[in-house]
Amino acid sequence: MGKGMSKLRVDGVSGERTPRFCERPAGRFIAVWIGLQTAFAAPLAAAATAASAPAAARDLPQTAPSATGAGAVPAPGPATLLNPNAIAQPALAMPVPAFSGTPAKALAARTPTTAEPGTLVPGGRRQTLTFADLGALDPLQLRGTDGQNGVPFSVRGDEVVTAATLHLIYSYSPALLPPISQLKVLINGEVAATLPVPRDQAGMLVARDVSIDPRFITEFNHLNVQLIGHYTQQCEDPSNSSLWATVSNASSLDLTYAFLASKPDLAALPAPFFDRRDVRRLELPFVFAQKPSAQTLEAAGAVASWFGALAGYRGALFPAQIDNAPLSGNAVVFATPDSRPAGVNIPEVSGPTIAVVEREAPARGRLLLVLGRNDAELETAARALGMGQNAFSGESATVTQLTDLQPRRPYDAPNWLPTDRPVRFGELAEARDLTVSGYDADSVRVNLRVPPDLFMWQTKGVPIDLGYRYTVRPAPDRSSLNISVNNGFVQSLRIPAVSSSTFDLGQYFTRVMPDRTAAARREIYVPPLLLTPRAQLRLHFYYDIPKTGECQGRVLDNVVGAIDPNSTIDLSGFPHYMALPDLAAFANGGFPFTRMADLSQTAVILPNEAGSADYSLYLLEMGRMGASTGYPATGVTVTTAADVDRFADKDLLILGSPGRQPLLQRWAKSMPFSGDADTRSFQLTDVGFKLVDWWHGPHGVERSPARADLSLVSSNGDALITGFESPLRKDRSAVALVSAAGQSDADLSAALLDNDLLPDIQGAMAVIHGRNVTVTSNGEAYYVGHLSPLHYMRWALSSHPLLLVLGGLAAALVIAALFYRALRSIAARRLRD
């Protein structure tokens, strides 16, 4: 529940749990193997009758070592030379012949010249993932005599891999000697294939299919490619620049899955509706009855934000289905006895209830039922699901009590760095992730989500008390600890060498005292402009590879670097004060709505006659808010334009298109956009002709005055996002997401989930058309937050030099008058004496 915010008690109906044996990788494989044998019993019997006895033995699950040995691995398929310009084309993957037969044959009877993806079984699926999909933003580089690089991948808990094929695209150095050089493909440390490096293909792009034994694949996996490289049979330099190979990130992994059956159980939540092993974007339909009430939508927003927090960087879509469930797949259903979707069987409801049920054939998948006897109980069930899902078990559970123990406070979102105390790195990353080893080790990465309204004017930046340990160098070299935030460089700390001085007295003290030269602590400062709402601190231990030269032995890869978990980052010295509108803060952190983690100070204004597209956009935004805060939006308010005056004390998120959202006309004078059913009006400034990061100035935000008002009639309106000060209250904000049903709705949703487009959403108004984002206005500035009087006076006078001079003169006159009165009083007292 986090911080003891709520108390939850449930009455559950116990369900039968999946056997622990099937939760293990080997158990999962054997369980699905039994199911596959049952499903394909007839083909297996026919194949066994027609084939010879040894062949039949090979088709059955391995109970004894085969002729080739238990560890034998299928040989890779033939290599194909590729046109470098064709890497990004779908036709790059080599055509694979279909395989007819049983899954047992598909596993055991692979030939060296085929790399079939396997035969789909009922409920199974096939998926192709490129290395780029798995996180390799650049090609994988292999260097030296033993270079190694790779990508991780995972398998859903309710699936098992029955066949796998690696479509590898690579090139290698012409200097490699074919007899003693090769590339090894490893899956979880097991050798899947060894690829030769013939001279006639050196320096070219080569494509090769490699069959991977699915028994090597577990839930969490790592696929590596290792270069065993040599350029001479005599003495060689292990770090010679001619020892290289490159694996394209267009290489792909073709996987065939089979479904693992299990009984519905709330204890497995959020699976199968969300599986942390699944690298795909979450797409989970939400099903409502006709015309869902505001409280039902608030309950749906809480559930969507919970799933959005789980999905994190992958993003989440929640297509709204009105009065009908999707034809197949998983879905979430919101219903009461008086308001239930058609075609969905609702059990008897005795209170706020959460249940998981199988879908009726022929549909596949499960339904997560959020139920209540009325809208209030429905909302209670949704809140309980978001905050206490770990307490549920069985097929259904009824919530008998849910009491809030402590209200949320501003800026206390679980994902955000606390701003009232120093934060240890051990709270932000696992201890094992703070240690790296080897000359080619990746950076230590620490994710930093900070509130976007921290006021860091005229400061050195955010202080980090950094403790780190390192391998002392045997001789002075260029080794260093390089510190950056995202792609912005911060500082470089030199890694020292062992002292070689004859007169160094320290060497005598090391006999009686521990050597402390391998640890250090430094204070560094992160510049304010680098600390965005979604920042990542990267600490790269760069160890200079010693030049041993030829015939001097190989380089020992025994260097280690570690960041002390007790290192801290401190945001407590910065007040909260910010100039708005700033759509960059909204796009990247959901600000100002996420200032309260539960969105208790947010009201969502839906258009008149809202439809499924409006509900889908609302749920998408709730998912984004949850991904930012890490907490379900249990306090959000949903209403319409007719009741907006009741929520003047809240920040407003306005949805709809001109003609359906009356506020776009009613508040036209307060915002840089207005429109009705036919006409659209835009306020234009010079911001479109300036640099992208227009708001970053020496004194904070710099606004360009409006230059023109453009009104037009368009047959196909673009989607746009605009921010402005709430006309209902001066210290509140409003953000409008304007789109119409059709392409503009799709463009807006895609832009909000596209990490490449989010940095382009800035200013007070951004127009979205396809994958193009144009900033047209930066609006009129207003400020949220609070500064101390002295801090505010310094900041205000800094941008007005003349006012500063006049203020200095006024202060001098006041001080002179005070001294004059004091001296006259002293003189008068002296004369009286």
TrEMBL record:
Biological processes, Gene Ontology terms: cellulose biosynthetic process; UDP-alpha-D-glucose metabolic process
Record's keyword annotation contains Nucleotidyltransferase: no
Coiled-coil residue spans: none
Membrane topology: Single-pass membrane protein
Keywords (A to Z) from UniProt: c-di-GMP, Cell inner membrane, Cell membrane, Cellulose biosynthesis, Membrane, Transmembrane, Transmembrane helix
Location, primary (coarse class): membrane
A GO cellular component entry from the record: plasma membrane
InterPro entries hit by this protein: Cell_synth_B (IPR003920), Cell_synthase_bac (IPR018513)
Pathways per UniProt: Glycan metabolism; bacterial cellulose biosynthesis
Protein name (record): Cyclic di-GMP-binding protein
Organism: Caballeronia glathei
Lineage, opening ranks: Bacteria, Pseudomonadati, Pseudomonadota, Betaproteobacteria, Burkholderiales
